[in-house]
Amino acid sequence: MDVINKAVFMVIMLDKSPENISDKGKILLHADGRTLWCDKSLNISFFPDGQCGLNVEHSMADAPAMGHVWEYAMTMEVIEKRYLDNGQVMPPPKSFKQSNFTSHRRIIWDITDALEKEINRAVLFNQKNNDDLDLEIRNHDKYGKGVIKKARVSPDAFIQIALQLAYYRHSGRFCQTYEASATRLYQSGRTETVRSCTEEAATFVRAMVSGRLPKEELLKLLRLAGNIHQKLYRDAMNGRGIDRHLFALYIVSKGLGYESPFLESIIRRPWTLSTSQQPQQQIQANIPDINLEPFRAMCSPGGGFGPVSDEGYGVSYMLPTEYNIFFHVSSKKSCPTTDSRKFSDILFKSMDDMRLLFDTPQLE
C-alpha cells in the first residue's frame, strides 16, 4: 500500500482495445470496475493498439491543467521525434540513468475472507453503475468554429444555444443548465457557473421551433442570445458569478446551524444539463519552424464526464480546429427519458438548422 500511495500516478495495461471510440471512452472513465485505482488523481491506461488515455480525479486541479500537460506530452512526442521509422523507441539520451528506475515486480496481497467478500461486493456495485452509463462520443465535422466566428457569433455561445434547442426539441421544456467557467485569473481560483439557459436563449429556441419568423429575425435573436451568453461568461471569469457565493453562504449556514430554505432550494436543484468546453492547444506550438497542422486528423477528442443528474445529460465539447467539434454526451440508461445517441442526433440536427440561418455568400 505504501508503494501505491507514494506513486505519482497509476499505469494500467489493458488487454482489449474496442474499435468504437465511445467504448474506449467508457473504459477510460470507469474501466471494468476493478482496474482503476481511483484514490489516485491520475490513472493512465494503455490499449493494445498503442492508444492511451487518462482518468483524472478533480480535487488536485481542474481539467484544463491536466489536459495541457497531456497535450504537451503528445506535441513534444511529434516535435522531438521519439521513434524510429520502424516504430521502435529511439535510444535514450546519455543523461538517462537506468539506475534511477527499479524493475517491475508483482505485489502479492494477503487478503482475508472478510476483505475478499467486501471487494467482490464493491466490484459488483461498480459494474452495475458502469453498465448504466450511456456514453456517446461524436466528431462534428460539417463545420467548426471558423464558420461560426465569421457569422459574428461566439463559438461557445453558439454551442450552448444549440444545446438549449436540442434539449427543448428532445423534451419539450427547458432545464437548469450548468457551464463551467475558469476563475484562474485569481489566486487559487477554480471554477464558476455560467447559467446558460437564459431568457434570450429561450426566446430564440421558441422562435426556431415555431418556424414563424424569417431567417433574418432568427439570426438577430441568435446573436442577441450569444452576446448575453458572452457577458455571463466574462462575468463568471471575473468573479461576478453567483453560484460559488451561494455555495459559500450555504456552507457557512450549515456551520452555524442556521437553516435557510432559500439556500437549500438553490443547492438541491438538479443540474439537468451539465456542460463544459475543453480548452485545448493540441496543434499549437510556439516553436519556430514547427507546423503541427499536418497532424490535424490525429487530434485527440478530449475528455468527458458522467451526468450530474440521474435524469439529465453531461455534455463536454472541444473545438480543436477551425473545421470540427468533438462532443462527449453521457446519461443514465436506467432513466427512461434520456438517450445519449438520440440527444447527439438532435444536437447535430439543431446545429445544422442554426447554420442555415447564416448568409453563406458573406461567409466565403
UniProtKB/TrEMBL annotation:
The keyword Chloroplast does not apply. GO terms for cellular component: membrane; mitochondrion. Its main location: membrane. One of its GO terms (biological process) is fatty acid metabolic process. It is found in: Membrane. Keywords: Acyltransferase, Fatty acid metabolism, Lipid metabolism, Membrane, Transferase, Transmembrane, Transmembrane helix. It comes from the Eukaryota. One of its GO terms (molecular function) is carnitine O-palmitoyltransferase activity. The active site is at 58 (proton acceptor). Residues 2-347 form the Choline/carnitine acyltransferase domain. Pfam families: Carn_acyltransf. It is a multi-pass membrane protein. Belongs to the carnitine/choline acetyltransferase family. This is Choline/carnitine acyltransferase domain-containing protein. It comes from Cherax quadricarinatus (Australian red claw crayfish).
